[in-house]
Amino acid sequence: MRALAAGQATWHRIKRPATWGAVLLFGLVWALARWAMGFPGRTPEDLLGPFLWALLFLAVTPFPWQWTGDDAPLARAWRGLLQAIPWNAAWVLALLLLLSGGGPRSGLGPGPGPGRGPGMGRGMRMMAPPEDRPWLPLHPRLLLLAVTNLSICVLLGWILADKERAEAVAREARRTAAQAQARALQAQMNPHVLFNAISGLTELVREDPEAAERALVSLADLLRGLLDHGARAAVPLALERELVERYLALEQIRLGRRLQVDWQWDRALEAAEVPPLLLQPLVENALKHGIAPSRTGGEVRIGLQARDGDLELEVANTGLALQDAAPEGVGVHNLRERLALLGLPEAAFSLFRDGDWTRARIRLPRPGARP
User: Fold this and answer.
1) Whether the predicted model's global pTM rises above the 0.85 cut
2) I need a surface site. Which of 143, 145, 189, 240 has the fewest CB within 10 A?
3) Model confidence pLDDT, tens digit, residues 199-217
4) What superkingdom heads the lineage (predicted)?
């Protein structure tokens, strides 16, 4: 990761409930252990010290391992060590100096009592070196504690960073698998659309050969649009409308005056990119189940608008009423699955009856908006 991304990863790690749960558990276990050994903490430093150490261990030790300078999620061993040692030495020594000042106090750290063991706080007699070893810059206990904590920091940081790297790889694998499945469903739509279009044109071959010829030209245009859509992960809404217009031109030849189309479309939103083939299956569903079976035909309204910060796409039709018990078509079922793979809630798509109208509605977050 680059420095900014590594910093963001650190911030997200701090915000995790699991981090705070681990900090709380460590602090409580430490306090109980001290109490059981007969050395309960009496000062704020004694009580808060273990919680602070645990938070710092979990929050900041992975940072030097995650700061790679490129897109790699974990630094190489030599770079990680070169970054982890000074990074952890700086904050460990700074915190030890902060907590170790003052007169003799009971230790904050893992020492068995006042003045014993590598305590994290004031269990040492000041920070000055002993008189028999004036050449030491700090008390041996403080140096031992610093080296111990530094070693733990380097090792724990690498373990946590490697764990987050593995989690990131797993998330990316799941995302890639979901994209592949969505693309497979998207590819499934192409032959489905063509099959339905060709089936609808067979009746024109004998009844109106000239109309059938015009329909074949429109079908070729539709095929080009489908191939272009199939090669994309996202398309501008302008292209989505263009594909639907080609499909409607084909169906207009077959249905004639029985099909009325009304676009209630906000052109200012056309540049927004969405997953391909969102509108076409809804329009096809409206024609297949509402307009075509009706002797008098009906109207199809296709809308695009911004609502509460989202993009709202709607296809509404008159004609035959929506039958609740009717099985869901391939196109609509395919659309539901693709929306689910994109991580959208089930409520993002709705199909319902509204008076004389059957409405199919999709709500999508606008590109660039926060989820």
Assistant:
1) no
2) 143
3) 666 666 667 777 777 777 7
4) Bacteria
